[in-house]
Amino acid sequence: MASVRYVAIGDSFTEGVGDELPDGTVRGWADLAAQGWADAAGEPIAYANLAIRGKLIEPIVAEQLEPALALKPTHLSFNGGGNDMLRPRTGIDRIVELFDHVVRRCDEEGVKLIVLSGANPTAGLPLGRLIEARGDRLSHAVEKRLEARPDVLTAYNWFDRELASGEFWSVDRLHMNTRGHHRVAARVIESVGLVPPPQWWHLREMPDVERLRGTTYYREHVAPWVRRRLTRTSSGDGRSAKFGGRWVQLTPGGETPSGGAAA
């Protein structure tokens, strides 16, 4: 078994939605960071990813944390709350309590925790200012709570203004595209004390991203989201984690892992 065993938990941000490959599978920052970690360290690592799109933070913690810890990882990355920010009633204090719970359980199990804040999508979203205000409050609250824990690794993305610009976002305006996922992966690799490929901070090889405007955008992306809220369903219903319950062995110079159907 590799000396580094890294497991990721979370929602679509961590699953990798928005970074779809030609065969329809999703990749994302966690997959990229895992392979980049092996490359930068020059040694194999084991990787698992239990994240499932559409999850609120309570189900992430209730359904993913203990199975992740049962794998006996050396490192665990955690992000949650992005979907909560889109709901009319968002309890910031309760979300911070769940972050505290993850910190406590990782302490108890001797696991090095990597805490991420999600990127800020609100420039392109309806009601963006309201959602941004909630995200600001949550991000500040988590950062303040972790100030006294320098041993907890952090990769904060919410206040990265460049990452908030449109060139880093997919056509649905809610999920990062390949550029965005590479930038977050670079920040995660830096958080563990390694050097990522410098081009990951701002990929320039991609063609211009298609932009849907007006009624087309609302019909294809906003309306389905509203229907799920009305029917109390989630984009993650019935889905399984792409690398859940098992380790994927990654070697330096190998191919970045990917799995799971596109959104």
Topology (SSEs and partners):
Layout lengths: L3 E6 L2 H4 L9 E2 L2 H13 L3 E5 L7 H14 L4 E4 L3 H4 L6 H18 L2 E5 L11 H19 L6 E3 L22 H14 L22 H17 L12 E8 L8 E3 L2
Parallel strand pairs: 1-3, 1-4, 4-5, 5-6
Antiparallel strand pairs: 2-8, 3-7
Give a short synopsis of this structure.
The chain is an alpha/beta fold. The protein has a single domain, classed as 3-Layer(aba) Sandwich (Rossmann fold), CATH 3.40.50.1110. It is built from eight helices and eight strands; from the N terminus they run βαβαβαβααβαβααββ.
Descriptive account of the structure:
The protein has 263 residues and is of the alpha/beta class. It has a single domain (4-208), classed as Rossmann fold. 39% of the residues lie in helices and 14% in strands. The strands form 2 sheets. It has a 6-stranded mixed beta sheet, with helices on both faces. Strands 2-8 form a two-stranded antiparallel sheet. Helix 6 (128-146) links the parallel strand 5 (112-116) and strand 6. Helix 2 (29-41) packs across helix 7 (178-191) and helix 3 (57-70) runs parallel beside helix 5. The chain starts with a strand and ends with a strand.
